[in-house]
User: Fold chorismate mutase from Algoriphagus aquatilis.
Amino acid sequence: MKPHKQIKDWGLGLTTPLIIAGPCSAETPEQIEQICKEMKEENIVPQLFRAGIWKPRTRPGSFEGVGEEGLRWLEIVRHHLNIPVTVEVGNAAHVELALKHKVDVLWIGARTTVNPFAVQEIAEALRGVDVPVMIKNPMNPDLELWMGALERMYAVGIDKLAAIHRGFSDAYDKRYRNKPNWSMPIHLKREWTGMEVINDPSHIVGRRDGLLEVAQSAMNFGLDGLMIETHHDPDKAWSDAKQQVTPARLKEMIDSIDFKQPLENMKPDERLQDLRRAVDHLDDQLLDILQERFAVIDQIGAHKREHHLTVFQSDRWKEVMDSRTQKGIKKHLSEKFMKELLYCIHEESVKRQEKQLREAEAVKK
Ligand code: PEP
Ligand code: MN
Assistant:
């Protein structure tokens, strides 16, 4: 696959960290104008203005967006702030209208990314069109679906691409509206070289408090920008009232975030090089030990086979899990990390032994 175009090459004068702000929904022309005026007064003009025109609502009966009319109001943004605008599209008709009104950047929402039919319909509507598209992560933590949506755009010729990390729904974790699951955006960046990911703390937190903390974490993890819902009178917003901030608060937040330099852009100094060499060496040792461990696992597998024992033995597994986790905790490793590590090693061990068993049976037959 040839490389896609990064944000700086979209031809819109954007750079990273990219700051996107604007209301959850466009409500009235006066609302858009007021937000723009306050952004200007507070000296916090984002690089890209967002506004929802069609709102995908979980339950019917709530405000579903102003529709095409709202696209005309985006002229107000251009007039006051002279910045490009982005809106969410959920089907081919939305794409057609957004393009008709010269929307600069499109985004696909989390409820659409989960549905390959809908994503493909949007992709077909975009075939041969030169417009940047940002894809929000799907509601569920499924990297394949997220990548799949990006690939569907790329396949029809959309090469100006970015991703938006807006968290994942989790019925049990009440701390967030959508749990961040930081490993997902990081995985995406690892899997698709150069893919920039914008963090959307508003939909992750779902409340005003806690936004800053999530935004800072995103920068610490090396994500490439922030999308923050901003409204001149958040409490009276027609959608997502609890999570929107005023332009004044947006300014305060942006000013207090420590925007890190990506390591790749820095000339690594001596100290960093030394430390990296130490890590390389430790990783080699880690791999040697894993190799040895799996050699022993294979011997155990052979023994189980000879004695007609099952590969998975739950008592032993529980003992390994508990004792290693306790040891890890004493070494200041977190319980969650220990459990994930042990699951991963154990899963591989079971797979190897099961494969050995299948191969031995095939030879017998
Ligand atoms: C939004 O950005 O207002 C929105 C509906 O987001 P999401 O698709 O992340 O729920
Ligand atoms: Mn919203």
Residues 42 and 86 are 22 Å apart (CA to CA).
